[in-house]
Amino acid sequence: MSGLETAIRNALEKSDRSSAEVRARIYQSSRQALEAGLRKQGIEDPDVVAQQRQRLEMLVHAIESEERNRLLNVVEDHVRREAARAPAAAPQVPSVTPSVSPAQWEEEANDLPVDAEVRGETPNADPAGHDIEDFRAERGVVAPDARSASDSDMGSLAFTPQRAAKARRKKRLVARLFIYFTLLAFLGFGAWWVYSSGLLLSPAERDTSVPNPPPEVQSEDFTGTETKPEPSLEAGRGFSDAWNEIFNADRGNSGLQAGSLAAIEDISTPAGKAVRLTSRVAEADGNVSIAVPTEVLREMAGKSSTIAITLQSSSDRQTQLSISCDFGSLGNCARHRFTATPERADMLINVTFDRTLAPNSPGRIVINSDVDGNGRPVNLYSVRILPGE
């Protein structure tokens, strides 16, 4: 940062440092140099970049304060010298600092320690005039208009801020242009919206659908015979007699076998009696087996069958569980993963066995409630199988 300070001060020494515009360009150049230096050094940490920018702004503020005080001292010294040269001038108002006339300032301008040349710019005929006027305004210096002054006040003539007036007129022009442009853009957007939304179209023009003929009823639409609905895999709340009941919690937990790291417990819920299955591991030791009779397996041989398992989560949270089957010589089914909710529901599995060889031993359906490793239990109500035809 010391290098930037030296560069800023050297640039001020070689330029018209009394001009606020020149100083502003020098400060902006230092900011750009800081950003280029940070990019060249590969510094991208937001905290470091913000700290360097803050240090530069503090440095610029300090140098600008020095420049303002220096210019103010020059003006005050000039005023004192003019007061010493003209002792017979009118007494000063206590709350007003004497102003400097343009003729006197032009006569003494060569005494100011300010260079008149700026890099690549034409020297200004009135160096520091505008900026000194700004500094005098901050300290309470009044610059009366020489054209409206009387003959007795000609000794205290002051210049008018013509550049400030031009800047104000320019700002007013820019503000008007901005307002006109905003109104024009708003009107254009409204016209586009009206056109694109079809607000001006008739109802017939808005309807772009294909015209459809009115529906007609023909004799071929009804055959006179009712088709028997095909069996679906939806959850069966009222199971028909075609379903073979493998397990029912109303008769207890008979037919269930728990692994070494699994537990079964008879419970009562608002939905009816159930058996709580708890698996502590996701491996085979946490499985709970449900026996499937041999005669049921024989009905499933060579057919597509449906297995319905009615259960729910034992808590208010969802529980992940897995269901698989082992039907001996008939074959196995893939491992299925279900999500048990707090509501009682039927989990449906469709299995197909091409083998017609009927097994001689019972099969089993395996349930594990510790798929996600949380060890949450599930409530089992019943297990049914619908053999295919």
What labels would you give this structure?
elongated, 35% helix, Jelly Rolls, 5-stranded antiparallel β-sheet, 11 strands, 6-stranded antiparallel β-sheet, alpha+beta, single chain, 389 residues
Can you give a write-up of this model?
This protein has helices at residues 2-13, 20-40, 46-85, 102-108, 129-138, 162-196, 203-206, 294-300, and strands at 244-248, 256-258, 262-269, 272-279, 288-292, 304-313, 319-326, 332-340, 345-352, 363-368, 378-386. The protein is α+β, with helices and mostly antiparallel strands and 389 residues long. The protein has two domains: 2-165; 244-386, Sandwich (Jelly Rolls). The strands form two sheets. Strands 1, 3, 4, 6, 9 and 11 form a six-stranded antiparallel sheet that branches. This is Biotin transporter BioY. The chain crosses the membrane at residues 173-195.
> What distance lies between the first and last C-alpha atoms, to the nearest angstrom?
90 Å
**Compute the gyration radius: what is it?**
48 Å
Mean pLDDT: 75
The secondary structure category is: alpha+beta
**SS elements, strand count:** 11
**Based on CA inertia axes, which overall geometry fits?**
elongated
How much of the sequence lies in strands comes to: 15-25%
